[in-house]
């Protein structure tokens, strides 16, 4: 069984909860240790399209039946250790998690997220071509839906930058069962008319930059006749899905928000 590579497991175990890994900005300090111990099968595949090779992590649930696919869109910090651990948690909930590294081929020597020098990932992600992102996501989704273990049901979920890309992807993909936007901005108003799936928002109470977009988004989605259901988690900060599981996070509202958001997310997917 092929699982996540873990060359630094011992080192991370020593420092878990004390410091973060410098090469993985905003990566959960225990993430590599947790995913290395996961009982679920995972694999890296190369999704090819239009001359691009997109390195994609797939994590399978332990299930006797075919399961829906959840396309996971990473934060502005790239496909970090935390993003990979999140994919494993999605699989633990009973779904096939598909997490493409959207920096594939963009790093030094044609590398991906892990190959960037410290501090360079966020700038690289912010400069990704939107059309390329959409094409990469479509290719990853198409690959996943053809997996023998997959049903034909497709969800998309993203965080921070990935939350905005999730909302945008919903304007470009007609077969989505639902889109789950975690503290990400909305797409252009004129694009909302193309959305066919319900969109569920998960937002932090202490995140005025993103929260300021919610009232207009509610109005615009209502005008377009689309389903948009946002929930704001009081006193939580931006990135609470990551921060809420970090042992060094001092805001209890982040953990509460993460737990409640996970429960809501799983309940919505189970509909």
In terms of DSSP E residues, the strand content is 15-25%
Radius of gyration: 18 Å
Q: Look at the structure and give the mean pLDDT.
A: 90
Please list the strands of the largest sheet in the order they lie side by side: 1-2-4-3-5-6-7-8
Distance between the termini: 31 Å
Question: What is the number of beta strands?
Answer: 8
Output the number of helix runs. Answer: 10
The main pleated sheet reads as: 8 strands, mixed
Helix share, percent: 25-40%
Low-confidence stretches: 1-27
Report the principal-axis shape. globular
How do the helices and strands follow one another from N- to C-terminus?
Answer: HHEEEHEHHEHEEHHEHH
Content-based structural category = alpha/beta
Task: Throw out a few tags for this protein.
eight-stranded mixed β-sheet; disordered N terminus; 10 helices; 8 strands; alpha/beta
